[in-house]
Amino acid sequence: MSRAPTAQLALQQQLADLDARDLLRRRRVQALPCSPATLNDGKPLLAFASNDYLGLANSPELIAAAQDAAMRWGVGSGASHLVSGHTEAHEALDQALADFVGCEAALSFSTGYLANLAVMPSLLGRGDAIFADRLNHASLIDGALLSRADLHRYAHLDMSMLASQLAASTAKRKLIVTDSVFSMDGDIAPLKQLLALAELHDAWLLVDDAHGFGVLGPQGRGALAEAELQSARLILMGTLGKAAGVAGAFVAGTRTVIDWLMQTARPYIFTTAAPPLLAATLLRALQLIEHGDRRREHLQSLIGALHTGLEGTRWQLLSSRTAIQPILIGDNMQALTVARQLEARGIQVPAIRPPSVPAGTARLRVSLSAAHSLDDVQALCTALRAIAPGQDAE
Fold first, then answer.
1. Which residue in 117, 107, 115 sits closest to 81, CA to CA?
2. Cα 21 from chain centroid?
3. Residues annotated catalytic, as ranges
4. Where do the domains of the chain lie, and which CATH numbers do they carry?
5. pLDDT tens across 79-110, in order?
């Protein structure tokens, strides 16, 4: 038997190091469809772990739409969009998404990560400049690096620092990029201020609305709609596997920007189109989002119940009015310990550690869904109070 390559032995040591620092991640096998009631590695749990914010992922309406679409379109597209994989269902979805978010045009992608890898390398290059919030999602960081533009990162939500960076830049083309809702903190970017800076310094503003689309704004049209912003400088990315309950993503903006992405975005050109049955199902999901005020109102009531239920305890909720409700712990091992204590009580809340969050800020990431009940939230609060009513968790 041949000896393992030296590089492989080094990987084994690095994996052991991650484990020793409580940073090794392990997949949990789910045996039930996405919902608050899960069967996790064979163990029934009440889950606060998905991004299914409106509770649509397992909804009868979308299951029926997917079944009908599979009968109409089959299960695969067969080719990339620009070869032969762009169907009537894809075309209808692109137009519906553009109309829904109030933009001239939209382009759908298989995932949000692909969408974010597509935009910046298509619009900018060497000698251009990107200005990014330091807590942006990994896909935005990777997209910026792939563009080869100069990358300037400003402290989280620090508009003064961003303004100074923009004023000092001599780049020909500039782009500000930010999450709308930050996925590990749940706070919201100051979009009006960001657009004002983009106007002042002749820059684009790319907003990743992965966690706002479907939840924020009138009829769930997203963070830009909530802020009442429209501009030719705005480029919007939204995901369709979170509040929309299905899969995929889109980029929306002016017709010129979208046409350019279609011609130049490598993750669009060289990727097999998503199955048309998903596009057709998403058309139904958009209708449910538009008429989903009751779901959004219920979600807000759950957020309020969580805050009320943890009053007077040691659990520090970060400032968030979104479905993402992080409880700051700090130490990696302690975050894992609390998560395991909750699991022993039949509740799943993931412990988030570096590199997903900065060192020393490990946390429990409570993700609420309209599929949860008030009793579910009360059960979580009761369990947390039992673990540590006022003192440090053991």
1. 107
2. 26
3. 183, 211, 242
4. 24-54+293-387 (3.90.1150.10), 60-290 (3.40.640.10)
5. 999 999 999 999 999 999 999 999 999 999 99
